[in-house]
Design a protein that fits this description.
Number of helices: 3
Largest sheet: none
Order of helices and strands: HHH
Distance between the termini: 20 Å
Number of strands: 0
Strand content: under 5%
Shape: rod-shaped
Radius of gyration: 19 Å
Number of domains: 1
């Protein structure tokens, strides 16, 4: 059972890294964009594509999930103090 839990935690860490990498790749190549406000009339910058802000939130969730799964992976291998 311990092996299954460690494998699952490792898979979650790797999956969160993959999601973070993909979202970072898509966000970096968005270049410059503006989401609204007074900047649209002053500067000739295109609006952000749909989903740009969602990718930032997904990256934050991927980091949190990866850290929690990594912590879980490390705790599963420890022996109990009892």
């Amino acid at each position: 059972m311990k092996t299954f839990l460690r494998t699952t935690a490792a898979f979650v860490v790797l999956a969160s890294l993959a999601v973070f990498g993909y979202c970072l790749y898509r966000t970096v190549f968005t270049v410059d964009c503006v989401s609204g406000g007074p900047y649209l009339s002053e500067v000739d910058v295109p609006e952000c594509p749909t989903g740009a802000s969602a990718r930032v939130w997904i990256m934050q969730g991927a980091v949190f999930t990866g850290v929690c799964a990594g912590w879980w992976f490390l705790l599963i291998g420890r022996r109990s103090a009892a």
